[in-house]
Structure formats: structure tokens, C-alpha cells
Design a protein that fits this description.
The chain has 385 residues and is of the alpha+beta class. It has two domains: 262 residues, L-amino peptidase D-ALA esterase/amidase, CATH 3.60.70.12; 99 residues, Ubiquitin-like (UB roll). Helix content is 31%, strand content 26%. The chain has ten helices and twelve strands. Strands 1, 2, 3, 4, 5, 6, 7 and 8 form an eight-stranded mixed beta sheet that branches. A four-stranded mixed beta sheet has the order 10-11-9-12. The radius of gyration is 21 Å and the shape is globular. 52% of the residues are buried. The N terminus is likely disordered.
């Protein structure tokens, strides 16, 4: 069975979720979510490369470094749990302790994520008070509720699922994400913010899961940029709980390759949704750099274009001033030769724009996704507080 992204997004076997409002956001908007696995899961986490990070990230990293199995992810929106006068790690620890007590699991089996305003006191008591109701409302149909609970400036929830046939068993990979601004992820091992949670009922080794996830992220979330601003809270967590009872997936097998293909499709689908929902954006822009000496070189050039405010503003204004593209290529640091450059740009009148750059240096290519820069983006971020 080929990966099928047309299925209705659904939680994999053995997972439950919920989301509710606990009072972090105004006007009763959902701001607290929970994912729970009935069976212990192997897990992987990728986090921002920013040197200043949320206490929720620090807590999750600590647990991932010392525990082997996980049962729950609790996430809040509206407050970043970062750069406050209090110890943000201790606040995260306090929430995990309360959740573990109510779920009757170990605190080491809990992972946390936060998104929202930086340097605002973290509302621990509000969150702890809401945990009993959050747990009580856990359901196999709670995917949409948690997807709503994690968004901030997003205009729509972001969900994607795929089903695969592994060893005559059907497995599901499901992802949910948020992000619309402050997006320039550089997700590395031991990353408005990007959050992503990917769940699977596949039976897979932790090592194989880690390799598959890193490969998928390198060609999806690490290939998008909206404003070139790296968040303090970028977090991607993946759990796989073996509830599908397929033969264990190991690296280097056909089953592993099939799993990687499905996971990559889910990640790329979610990454493109984030770009399409970029704050104030009117354009979805794909930049492909070809004829480079290496993938790294091609991506370096593509990101230089994607992060150019002059280029992004020109795309919003439908201005065919391709000198801005050439300038960004030259500023990338790659030793290009002017006369060898080839530039193609699709119609600027359409919502989807495709830019192709030929460097005439080699046989490697890379693709990056971005959006245009609009007055609405400035308006949103001038008043976000």
C-alpha cells in the first residue's frame, strides 16, 4: 500500500488527545493540550538551535536524555515559559509532576512544549488546575481539539496523516503542527513558534525512529523560512507506541524505507501548511537552486534568497525586479560566476510562485519554501503582545 495523504487525519492506535481553555489566552480560546499513549512509546525530539530556550524544552531534553519510554506530551500556547524572573525549568517540572500524578505514570515519561509570549510569568497554577479536566476529556477523537489548543497567530489548524502497509499490518503516522510567524527553524538533536507532534503506532526501534525523523525534518521543516527569525521554543516531538503490532522496523530494510517515505510526506505536508499560513502572506514561494557543487551549497543560496526582505517585498508587489534575486545569490557566500547564472520565475500574478536558479557549478540541487513580505505581517507583529 502506497502512502496515502488523502485520508482524514486520525490518531494512531493507542493514542488519545484533548485540548481546552485554561485561561492563558484571552476570550476563552483553547490554550492547553495533551497527548497520551496507552502503551509506552519510543520517542525522539528535535529542538531549536537558539541559545536561549524555554524551560519546557530544557525539561523535555533532560527526560529524553535519561528515559527510554514515554507516555504523554503536554503543551500550552499563549506563554513561552522563557526568560522570566522565575526558573522556567522548575515550572515545567512542577507541571509534569502534577500530570504524572493524575495519569499514574512516571514524571520521566512526560514531555513538554510551550509557545507564546516571551518574558511573561508562566501561569503554573492555572495549568495545574486544568489538568484533571484535561485528562478526563482524553479521547481517540481529540485530535482536532489539541490542534486548536497549540495555535497562536495561525489562521487554520495543521494536520496530516498517512497509512502504510508494514509486514501485513496497517500502521498510521499522524502529525499536527502550528506556526505562522517567527519561523526559521534549525531543528537539531540534543528546536508565533513552530511546534510539531508526530505520532505513530508502528513498532520501530528508537535508533531507526531517530534516523527517519532527522532525514524527514532535513527535507521539510529545515527547508522553510517565513521571516528569518529563529524562535526560542521550536519543538518537534515524535512518539511511536508499537500498537499496530507490525514486525519491528529496523534501519536498512524495505520496511524502514517505506516508513521513511511516509514520515517524509507527513513532515513536508505540514511544513508547506506553515508557509501557506505565514503571517500576512499572499504568496507561497518555492525556490529551487540547481547545478550546485553540493546540497549544502544549493540550500545556502536558496535560503539567502528566501530570507531577503527585498525579494519577499518584490514578490508581494508583483515586481519583476530580478536584480534582487541576483543580489541575494551573490550575498549567499557561494563563489558564483555572474555570467553562469540562470534565473527563471513563474507568473507573479498567481498565489504560488516558483523560482529556479541555475549556478552552473555542479549537479546538486535544493528546494526551500517561503512566503512574501506584506504590510499585514508588519501590522501583526507590531501589535503582538
Amino acid at each position: 500500500m502506497k502512502p496515502n495523504l488523502t485520508i482524514k487525519p486520525t490518531l494512531p492506535l493507542g493514542f488519545k488527545a484533548n485540548g481546552l481553555a485554561c485561561g492563558i489566552k484571552k476570550r476563552g480560546r483553547c490554550d492547553l493540550g495533551l497527548i497520551f499513549s496507552e502503551k509506552p512509546s519510543v520517542a525522539c525530539g528535535l529542538f531549536t538551535a537558539n541559545k536561549i530556550t524555554s524551560g519546557s524544552i530544557k525539561f523535555s531534553q533532560a527526560n529524553l536524555n535519561k528515559a527510554r519510554k514515554f507516555r504523554a506530551i503536554i503543551v500550552n500556547s499563549g506563554n513561552a515559559n522563557c526568560f522570566t524572573n522565575e526558573d522556567s525549568f522548575d515550572k515545567a517540572d512542577e507541571i509534569a509532576d502534577e500530570l504524572a500524578r493524575i495519569l499514574k505514570i512516571k514524571k520521566q515519561e512526560v514531555l513538554l512544549a510551550s509557545t507564546g509570549i516571551i518574558a511573561r510569568p508562566f501561569p503554573v497554577q492555572r495549568i495545574k488546575k486544568a489538568i484533571p479536566a484535561l485528562v478526563e476529556g482524553l479521547s481517540g477523537s481529540g485530535l482536532t481539539r489539541i490542534a486548536r489548543a497549540i495555535i497562536t497567530t495561525d489562521t487554520f489548524i495543521k494536520l496530516s496523516s498517512v497509512r502504510l502497509n508494514i509486514g501485513k499490518r496497517i500502521i498510521t503516522i499522524c502529525g499536527l503542527a502550528k506556526g505562522a510567524g517567527m519561523i526559521a527553524p534549525n531543528l537539531i538533536s540534543p528546536c508565533a513558534t513552530m511546534l510539531c507532534f508526530i505520532l505513530s503506532d508502528a513498532n520501530i526501534t528508537q535508533k531507526a525512529l531517530r534516523v527517519a525523523l532527522q532525514n524527514a525534518v532535513d527535507n521539510s521543516f529545515n527547508c522553510i523560512t517565513i521571516d528569518g527569525c529563529m524562535s526560542t521554543n521550536d519543538t518537534l516531538l515524535m512518539l511511536s507506541n508499537s500498537a499496530a503490532f507490525n514486525p519491528k522496523i529496523k534501519e536498512g530494510t524495505p520496511e524502514f524505507n517505506e516508513f521513511c517515505s511516509g514520515l517524509s510526506r507527513v513532515c513536508l505536508s505540514l511544513a508547506k501548511m506553515i508557509v501557506r499560513d505565514a503571517e500576512g502572506a499572499t504568496k507561497f514561494i518555492q525556490i529551487k537552486v540547481t547545478q550546485a557543487r553540493s546540497y549544502k551549497e544549493a540550500k545556502q543560496v536558496a535560503l539567502s534568497i528566501a530570507n531577503s526582505n527585498l525579494f519577499k517585498a518584490a514578490m508581494f508587489g508583483r515586481s519583476a525586479n530580478f536584480g534582487r534575486i541576483i543580489a541575494a545569490v551573490g550575498a549567499s557566500g557561494v563563489d558564483v560566476v555572474e555570467k553562469d547564472l540562470k534565473v527563471k520565475v513563474s507568473s507573479l500574478k498567481k498565489k504560488d510562485i516558483y523560482v529556479i536558479i541555475g549556478l552552473n557549478r555542479g549537479n546538486c540541487a535544493a528546494v526551500v519554501y517561503t512566503s512574501d513580505l506584506t504590510p499585514e505581517y508588519v501590522k501583526i507583529n507590531a501589535s503582538y503582545s
